[in-house]
Amino acid sequence: MAKAITLEDSFGSLEKIIDNLENGQLSLDESFKMYNEGIKLIKNCNVQLDKVEKQIIILDKNGENDGI
Amino acid sequence: MAGVYSVTQINVYIKNMFKQDFVLNKVSIKGEISNCKYHTSGHVYFTLKDEFGTISAVMFAGQAKNLTFQLREGQKVIVNGRIDVYERDGKYQLYANEITLDGAGDLYKQFEELKIKLEEMGMFASEYKRPIPAFSRRIGIITASTGAAIQDIINISKRRNPYVQLILFPAFVQGDNAKESIVKGIETLDRMDLDVIIVGRGGGSIEDLWAFNEEVVAHAIFNCDTPVISAVGHETDFTIADFVSDLRAPTPSAAAELAVADIHLIEERIYSYSYSLNQMFDRIIYNKRNLLEKYNLKLNYLNPINQINDKRQRTMDLEDKLNYAIKNKLKYKKHELAILCERLNGLSPLSKLSQGYAYAENSKGNSVNTINNVALHEHLRIHVADGVIEAKVVEKTGISR
């Protein structure tokens, strides 16, 4: 699912950003930009983790279920 | 004559012998089935044979109902049961409790053949294996609706991530209906746009697991667009489904661990990124501030105002030095003057006069300091302290002093 990939991608991007901030000889401007992007990514990750507990859905013989 | 026994007595004697024999009471016999007859009562009568002999056998309805397969002519089986005597016919029989297909002979061979066939078709190739998503939200499960397998999967899934949506397609996992049931489950769940599908069951014999060796099931798994994790039996059980699936789990519990990411770890990871991000950025700000401070100090230090103050200071210093120097010079010159004054004073003719000395001057105005400059009867003027004396030279005498 697209969302799942984005979470992994987000992690990858965050690693890169943190690396850059750690090692890079970035200007203050660039540092601000990277930091903001990082914060945005983190917000996005948290949004994607939905916190709703779900009951298991059991399909009937015909593979149907009212709920789906 | 030795004792004469009735037929019945002999049969009873023989039956007792069998009954007391510990081998015959509980025995496993390998052979091939022939003359198999399913009675309407549910009892099954058959003959078990090998190269050199046969033995009659019967499986009563009570045990026969547990058979997971049809007994057929030619099947190689292992029969567990006891050998007893049916007195009525004066025959001994094998009373079967349990019959299993002899794996070495039949099923195992089928398994190997199918495995080779599908492998050559490329269905096990790693290029076709879909990656299991790192973070699944909706997970399909095809297994029996009761039993340890589904319970384990549910428990472990909920523990790792209570927010996943589990969808179960209850399937038959053994018996003749199983393969269609499993295929239907795969096809149904594949249409539901799930992240991953787990298909499997708990442990069992090769016959129990056989549905997962069926070719239709292999094709269904291969053609499934959703990634499939197979979880059939125990760690040591390998079925065709395990080879064709996108990932094999040794047990249903392991499948849940592979399918469901631990959300606590993910939350921790997100938090740690957040923390690192802030740390890094704080450090950058701190460094930049320090740098700014350094530049500020340097700039202040190089400020022209500082130079002015410096110069001013220097000027004042020089002024002081100048003043001092000139005062000294003045003092020195005054001193010099005083000395010269003294000298002058010392040389002053007036002082000489006041000391009692006289100054003689001739008529020309020249001073007379030698007898050679005066002539007898010359007119001289003699200056003394309080006046002038007009004199005439009367006599001159030379004296070597």
For the record, the CATH architecture of the largest domain in chain B stands as 3-Layer(aba) Sandwich
Rg value of chain A: 19 Å
Tell me the count of domains of chain B.
4
Termini separation of chain A comes to: 17 Å
Description:
The complex is a heterodimer of chains A (68) and B (401). Chain A is an all-alpha fold. Chain A has a domain at 2-48. Chain A is built from two helices and one strand; from the N terminus they run H-H-E. Chain A is rod-shaped, with a radius of gyration of 19 Å. The mean pLDDT of chain A is 81. By secondary structure, chain B is of the alpha/beta class. Chain B folds into four domains: 7-101, OB fold (Dihydrolipoamide Acetyltransferase, E2P), CATH 2.40.50; 125-261, Hypothetical protein af1403, domain 2 (Rossmann fold), CATH 3.40.50.10550; 265-302; 350-392, no CATH class. In chain B, the strands form three sheets. Chain B has a five-stranded mixed barrel. Chain B has a five-stranded parallel beta sheet with strand order 7-6-8-9-10, sandwiched between helices. In chain B, strands 11-12-13 form a three-stranded antiparallel beta sheet. In chain B, helix 5 (148-160) runs parallel beside helix 9 and helix 6 runs parallel beside helix 7. The model of chain B has no long low-confidence stretch (mean pLDDT 91). The A-B interface holds A 1, 3-5, 7-8, 11, 14-15, 17-18, 21-22, 26, 28, 31, 35, 38-39, 41-42, 45-46, 49-54, 56-59, 61, 63, 65, 68 and B 133-138, 145, 154, 162-170, 184-185, 188-189, 192-193, 195, 263, 266-267, 269-270, 273-274, 276-277, 280-281, 284, 288. Strand 1 (57-58) of chain A pairs parallel with strand 7 (165-170) of chain B.
Q: What keywords describe this structure?
A:
heterodimer, A: 68 residues, mainly alpha, 63% helix, rod-shaped, B: 401 residues, alpha/beta, OB fold (Dihydrolipoamide Acetyltransferase, E2P), Rossmann fold, 5-stranded mixed barrel, 5-stranded parallel β-sheet, 13 strands
